[in-house]
Amino acid sequence: MFRLMGFAWLVVLVVSAYGLYLLKNKVEVMRMELADTRGQIVSEKERQRVLSAEYAYLARPERLEEIARRHLSLQVMAPSQILASVGDIPYPQPKEAPVPAPSQGMENNPGEVPMVSIQGASPVSWNGER
User: Fold this and answer.
1) Residue 64 lies in a domain
2) Which residue pairs, CB below 8 angstroms and at least 24 apart, start in 57-61?
3) Is residue 106 in some structural domain?
4) Domain count, the chain
5) What is the pLDDT of residues 33-65, one digit of tens each?
6) Residue 124 is assigned to a structural domain of this protein
7) Is 19 part of any domain?
8) 47 is in which domain, residue-wise?
9) Residue-wise pLDDT tens digits, 59-112
């Protein structure tokens, strides 16, 4: 009986040691992945700083002015191009909407609103009373 209990405790000890070994290896792999991810974050932040500095260098107004002068044929605005008032702005003319065909029974009285009855409905006044 004591041999069986001793063997059972030995098996539990070996299984626990193996589980602890596997857990230790898993933790080491996760630590390496964490260190790698932190390194990637640092390099991305550095890359972001470099790109920000490069953008600031490329977006300088004097540099953009020189490029625009070289590649665009812009001229100084003449006083005659400036509009004197808002009324001088040419607005597009509105398009005429098509006139709908008259509906049935409306030919004789075009100003009359047709009445429609709904079964089961009761009339409601403007203030919501029935």
Assistant:
1) yes
2) none
3) no
4) 1
5) 999 999 999 999 999 999 999 999 999 999 999
6) no
7) yes
8) 2-71
9) 999 999 999 989 998 888 888 777 777 777 777 887 877 766 655 555 555 566
